[in-house]
């Protein structure tokens, strides 16, 4: 069936649903249950947001939105599943944008999707920055002091998940600072990395603000720099990397929603509108805030533009890093 035929059918379905809706109630775009796919496991922060979004999209975009967890290959398996789904609006995905913009550069041989051609961007949900943290009693007063101490010692150790934006940013920092850096990925999780940081077994953690904010607030850790363009209102005394002389370490991570490519524009627009309403709901905003995500819904066109820009930007960064995940 051609995309044009799907578009006509979707438009007729929307008109028919509107005709039978109760007065004052918007009709769902689809008349059957749909699936919201996430590559994160149950109980994770990403999963918790996906489930809240599903609650608010149910009865709005579709009668019921079911969350489907498809873990593996750092979210790429879930994205491959969505790529192969029918472009009928019934399968979509909530994910960090770097899975689309960065991972094809990090895993060029084993990534089986084209991030720019295989998906229809629907919306961003928000953005979150990254931060560099040391233990609270570390003698370095600031980022410059830390780098001086690590250069004098001859090496440094840092936790970051391999192949992620924070890993690439850590390698960029080390290269620009002339620092020999060993990245320790801790396959058994951030909690173990935090334990080793506080015990002095590693020097620093470069991670999402959601990971480093709580230890910094409760006095176990100390933020030294954040990747935002301006200082964060929640941490007004913490300098940005740009203020510390590392302008290339200005970055944030968008979380977004995509549909399979060739999904009719009428359905893309309907899902975008429903996502906008969901993100405006206080329970969703509160959950995003707990994950240090700043809500911000971009249009499908603006989301696609951000994806193109991020994809173009990450290529040279990965090449300069010298990191290869595939041997």
Cα-based radius of gyration, to the nearest Å: 21 Å
Q: Helical content, roughly? A: 40-55%
Q: Please mark out the parts with pLDDT under 50 across 5 or more consecutive residues, or reply none.
A: 1-25
Total helices: the number is 12
The largest beta-sheet arranges its strands as 2-1-3-10-4-11
Shape: globular
Ends distance: 42 Å
Number of strands: 11
Largest sheet geometry: 6 strands, mixed
* Structural class label: alpha/beta
Mean pLDDT across all amino acids: 91
Proportion of strand residues: 15-25%
Name the helix and strand elements from N-terminus to C-terminus, one letter apiece.
Answer: HEHEHEHHEEHEHEHEHEEHHEH
Can you lay out the helices and strands and say which pair or pack?
Layout (H helix, E strand, L loop, with lengths): L2 H18 L13 E5 L6 H13 L7 E5 L6 H9 L6 E6 L1 H4 L1 H4 L12 E10 L1 E6 L7 H11 L2 E4 L5 H13 L3 E4 L5 H9 L5 E5 H9 L3 E6 L26 E8 L4 H16 L1 H9 L3 E2 L4 H22 L6
Parallel strand pairs: 1-2, 1-3, 6-7, 6-8
Antiparallel strand pairs: 3-10, 4-10, 4-11, 5-8, 5-9
Helix pairs in contact: 2-10, 2-11, 7-12
